[in-house]
Amino acid sequence: MARSFEWFEKLGWSKAWEWGEPPNFGSVCSGEYQIFLCHDCQGGRAYNASESRDVVDEGTWLSIWVEDVDQVYQECLTRGIEVTFPPTDMPWNVREMHVRHPDGHVFRIGKGLEDTEEESTSVER
């Protein structure tokens, strides 16, 4: 849990609370947004509720929307966060990048791309 809290702090989030001794449940927040974290619990990479058995090397995908993907990318590089996919304009009209949490979870950091003038014109017709 401590490693997860430290990783999120590098990303600009702060620890909201933790629970357990040693902590195995907690939360990080950024503004009004909050993510719950769990170590080897329901939703964790070593737990699979549907099969009631341990699962190895499974993580979670989570999307985080930001104002400036390229700025976040530079901050991640500066702070030593593993970037697995650099900022790229995707065919689904999103500029996104991927970072990996130390537990193997991948976070998609993105922002919707502005409509092109042609698309805006066709919508108005």
What does this structure look like?
This protein has 3 helices and 7 strands, in the order αββββαβββα. The protein is α+β, with helices and mostly antiparallel strands. The protein has 2 domains: 1-58, no CATH class; 59-115, Signal recognition particle alu RNA binding heterodimer, srp9/1, CATH 3.30.720.110. The strands form 2 sheets. It has a 4-stranded mixed β-sheet with strand order 4-7-6-5. It has a 3-stranded antiparallel β-sheet with strand order 1-2-3, with helices on one face.
List the helices and strands and how they pair.
Elements: H1 2-10, E1 14-19, E2 25-30, E3 33-38, E4 61-65, H2 69-79, E5 83-90, E6 94-100, E7 106-112, H3 117-124
Calculate the terminal CA-CA distance, rounded to whole Å.
Answer: 53 Å
Please state the average pLDDT score: 79
Number-wise, the strands total 7
State the major sheet: 4 strands, mixed
Structure class: alpha+beta
Domains, number: 2
Question: Looking at the structure, what is the overall shape?
Answer: elongated
Spatial order of the strands in the main sheet? 4-7-6-5
The low-confidence runs, each spanning 5 or more residues with pLDDT under 50, are: 42-57, 116-125
Radius of gyration: 17 Å
Order of helices and strands: HEEEEHEEEH
Summarize the amount of helix as a percent range. 10-25%
Beta fraction:
35-45%
Give the helix tally. 3
